[in-house]
Amino acid sequence: MASMRDIKRRRSSIQSTQQITKAMKLVSTVKLQRARAGAERSKSYFQCMYDTMNSILARVGEVEHKYLKSGETGKKAVILVTSNRGLAGGYNNNVAKLITRHETWKPEDLLIYAIGNKGREILHRAGYEIKEELPEIMEAPAYADAMFLTERLLKSFEEGEISEIYLAYTAFKNTVSHIPTLIKLLPVDRPGENDGDSTAERDRKDSLKEEKPVDYGAPMNFEPADEEALDLIIPKYVASLIYGGLVEALASENGARMQAMDNATNNAAELIDDLELLYNRARQGSITQELTEIIAGANAIQ
Amino acid sequence: MSDENKEYQLRIVTPERVFYEGNVEMVEFNTTEGQIGVLPGHIPMTVIVAPGILTITEAEGVKEAALHAGFAEILPDRITILAEIIEWPDEIDEDRAEAALQRARERLENRDSQTDLARAETALQRAIARIEVLK
């Protein structure tokens, strides 16, 4: 049995770790609430954006548009949204797995736009080409960041450097459930062409589809005309999806960290309990031993 | 449209917040095709916003804001503006707007083949809208 001093030292070390994890849990709880409120505030924007986009796409029918067909040449661009810091359980690994374990994607076909340091580290180690790294965005995602990134992606798309654009992020369902999600940003899928979607993507679409459009008797008019409107609206649509991904990922990150730290705190408490028991047993053992020695000594004198 | 229906619902949402929600009599703003004013009972229409002043006429008075980018969905009984950038007058920093105006003007005057004209023009329009709405 370990000595009393060793047990005591170990216990106090675990106690201080527990204090750290407890503090981190509190911090991420507060951050989670803020991030969650942000994600909910922006929800109505995406709802409107999504509805408008669908109604436009349903109206224009079969048009040739640069954003509606994938380029023949070029790689696939994947925007990977992860956190800058660790200690968030499986959060970062789960998103990265969407890419590393993808059935058909090979590392040489992809260009990674890494938002957040952790994802970049994971994919870099796995041999993916990191086209850009933007860790500072994750500190406080702003719509301007999403617009900036969209502008650059669309430029590469038009130039034929990339043929498709995907977004990998963690969707925030509720505090305990975060789902790694991969969605296609460009070319935009037309309604009715969604049969090949992943389940997660369909879930997201279903959750956005709740409101039924009201029939106003007159068809929607566009000013400027359809194709020109597409030129202007699709970049906004892509930017809003990216921004939505960012705010949800931030909420998920804090949720995941809160859970991880909660588990760590509980595990520490369990360890401390065990050590407490060991310590008391060792203490009692030493008292018993001392007593036995004293009594034996006293008996020897008699 | 009958007389009792003088108002309709206006919703302005930005990615970060719901900017405005309420019943209004008229909304005026700039689109890529020119200025429009929307009264109740408008035909369904989607327009792209151009930088300018957004004027909201409520029963109690008139409100103004600087609207820079986004698009609007107009329906007979409601209008939704998806605004990427929009500010109330008290959120605008006048000095910064003036500085931006100066910069944009200079860029347009001393332009060469390197200048991104569309960008400089948008910047100029934005600065003008900001300053106008403050007056």
Describe the protein.
The complex is a heterodimer of chains A (302) and B (135). Chain A has 302 residues and is an alpha/beta fold. Chain A has a domain at 43-213 and 220-257: ATP synthase, F1 complex, gamma subunit (Pyruvate Kinase, Chain: A, domain 1), CATH 3.40.1380. In chain A, 59% of the residues lie in helices and 14% in strands. Chain A is built from seven helices and six strands. Chain A has a five-stranded mixed sheet, sandwiched between helices. In chain A, helix 5 (143-159) packs across helix 7. The longest helix of chain A has 76 residues, at 226-301. In chain B, helix 1 packs antiparallel against helix 2 (117-134). The mean pLDDT of chain B is 83. Chain A binds chain B through residues 38, 41-42, 44-45, 48-49, 52, 56, 142-143, 146-147, 214, 216, 218-224, 229, 232-233, 236, 239-240, 243, and chain B through 13-18, 31-33, 43-48, 70-71, 73, 75-76, 80, 82, 84. Strand 6 of chain A pairs parallel with strand 5 of chain B, so a sheet runs across the interface.
Properties at a glance:
heterodimer, A: 302 residues, alpha/beta, Pyruvate Kinase, Chain: A, domain 1, 5-stranded mixed sheet, 7 helices, 6 strands, 14% strand, elongated, B: 135 residues, alpha+beta, ATP Synthase, domain 1, Single alpha-helices involved in coiled-coils or other helix-helix interfaces, 2 domains, 8-stranded mixed sheet, 8 strands, 43% strand
- Can you name the CATH architecture of the domain at 43-213 and 220-257 in chain A? 3-Layer(aba) Sandwich
* Radius of gyration computed on alpha carbons of chain A: 28 Å
Largest sheet of chain A: 5 strands, mixed
Helical fraction of chain A equals 55-70%
> Which sheet architecture does the biggest sheet of chain B show?
8 strands, mixed
Q: Which bin fits the share of residues in helices of chain B?
A: 25-40%
Average residue-wise pLDDT of chain B: 83
Roughly how many Å apart are the termini of chain A?
A: 34 Å
Order of helices and strands of chain B: EEEEEEEEHH
